[in-house]
Amino acid sequence: MAKYFDITWIIHHGHYDDINTQHYSNENHKIIVTGEKPKRNNIYSNNSWLIPFYFLISKHLKKNRYDLIFIHLERFCFLLPIFSPNQNYALQLFTAAISHSKLKNMINNLEQKFHIMFFHKIIIGTSWMSEKFKLGKKQVICPKWGHVRISSVPKCFDAIRLLYVGTLTNRRIHETAQGLSIFLKNNQVDVNVSYDIIGTGNDESIAELKRSIKQYGLSEIVTLHGFLSDAELAGFFDTCNVGIAYIPITDYYNNVVATKLIEYHLSGMVAIATETNENIKTVSSNNGVLINDNPLSFADGLLKVYENLKNWSSEKIFKESEVMTTEYLVKTETVLALKSLM
Question: Which domains does the chain show, CATH number per domain?
Answer without folding.
Answer: 7-145+326-339 (3.40.50), 160-323 (3.40.50.2000)
